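ok trying this again, last paste got cut off
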Amino acid sequence: MPALLIASMAAPALAAVPTGELPGNLTCQQVPKRGWTVCASTVRLPLFPEKPGDTTVFFHPRHAADGDPKTAWSPGQRGLNLGTLIELRFTAVRRVRYLALWNGDGRSPNAWAGNGRLRQALIQTSDGLTDKVDLVARNGVQMIVLSRPADTRWIRLIATAATPGKRHRPFAISEFRPSDGERSPDVPVVGAAMVDDWLPEPPDDGNR
């Protein structure tokens, strides 16, 4: 089964944010200061305050690419949310070789441990690239090196394996954006491998 079909299998959004939806059941939001639009297949309902003084936590798609690791996008289905996706759409063709990813909810160590993280993802671009990448379990940024430079109008990340959090099963992504490849020595680098046709193995728990 072509990898692109995984995206079409994703369910429509369960929690609508105050923006219009584009074809493909993707909820999209612009990030003007970054010059791109962020689209997601599902959006998680807010986490309301558990005690006075706490703030409501929203998981808007734009939070995954706004430059602030203390905000995050999270998908809205029950379970591990395998097959759900997030996509950056550019205003013009852009060359991309490196991606910066903050895997998990970066608000705090407790939030990171309490929410899920991705273990593996599929990355696709409009010029035909399909890469598979194994991710680091780290509350911090990691750099993904694509198998080749992509000249693309969009870049898409599809969840294929995830670890549930201690309190919430859905994974979160605090940052997902192109990078120039510059990094500090403590930032891990993960290499993506090109694939043609790829479908993940069913999770042991049936994605419950």
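PB: full thing came through this time. The beta strands are 21-22, 26-31, 36-40, 85-103, 117-125, 130-134, 141-163, 173-179, 189-191, 193-194.
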